[in-house]
Amino acid sequence: MFEQRIDAPTATRAEIIAAFSYALDLTEGQPAGHCIRACWIGMRTGRALGLTAAELADLYYVLLLKDLGCSSNAARICELYEADDRAFKQGYKTVGTSLAATLHFVFSKTARGKPLHRRAAAIGNILRNGGDIAQELIVSRCTRGADIARTLRFPASVCEGIYRLDEHWDGSGRPGRLRGDAIPLTSQIALLAQVVDVFHGHAGAEAALDEARRRAGGWFDPRLVRALETAAAEPDFWFTLTSSVVEGRVVRMAPEELGATIGEDYLDAIADAFGQVIDAKSPFTAGHSRRVGELSLAMAGHLGLPQARAFWLRRAAVLHDVGKLGVSSAILEKPAGLDEREWEEMRGHAAHTREILGRIGVMADLADVAAAHHERLDGAGYPLRLGGATISRETRIITACDFYDALTSDRPYRAALPVEEAFRIMDQAVGTALDADCVAALKASVA
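The structure corresponding to this sequence follows.
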């Protein structure tokens, strides 16, 4: 349908990845900018260690992308612990290393507020199968993260660094129980930086350093903790960490050999990679972002959009649900109707999409188009209750594709509908929720 595009330089990989890292903070339940701050902490620690330029290059992207696979275990955490996955993950990271502290946290959060027999059953399952559960969750996260890093075309050293994030210096970590120098140095520094940022946000700089020291010889190589202390003693370390300039400082730390400008083809690869992050949030959305993207591209051809605009639209369509990373899996997986509080959180995903894409200079023009995919022609949609001519043609295309794929895919509350039934429902929504020309183009695209 379209000829291969000719790339033109657009932005640096570091700028785009740094901005997208805010989406990873959402799904991990961390305050905005966590991955950015971890990168600042980790890179300064790496420099204090005297790492080579090549080692720092790998470390930089392991730090920014350490949480690439974190959405893949969200639904499973909800199922096992009967808890909000984002709140559970956030709280768990502030627990100390003792077994007593871990058990207290897990027992206090598991099936909280549920009937006693439900709590007892859930806690009993965790007690019986705790080791297997931890291994399953970490393997899922680490494997998916490394796979998505490959989609982003990072070298094996970066993918391995992401995969080994949860290994501990004393061999008590996962997924491989590696010990000491068998753990990639990038993984060791990334885990240290993660703990320091979490505890800094939780209780301040001294608490963060104290926690790192407590874990020296256990989770962390004591040599790395000493390098952290050296870095943290520099005047700008903590000030920059908490300032509004930290993202700009981190982007300027990007390795020169990986900081070349990139073009349209790589922007598509980035969109596809984060589409995988989005879809991993729920087993019911596997492949959804990719399918909506491909349907939108096909529809663009039927509707006569110029080639460049059609590929731009595909990118917006793939990323339309990036805001769902900020929605609890307890809501996404709920097999019944949502209450008002849950609907409010669900509707918030559109605003999250606008905020995330709006941060990414080279993709900022996607933000309004992608975020409006739940608006309706009759003005009854969300988040802005737009209507009629205020909804762009590109948004109308994404809306139709999203509507169709949702109907023809399994959902927690029903099985996938046949294509004919899906189009019958869509025909009834023409003029109120859906654009007639878009529905016609969609039918032609899937025929």
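The chain is about 60% helix and 0% strand.
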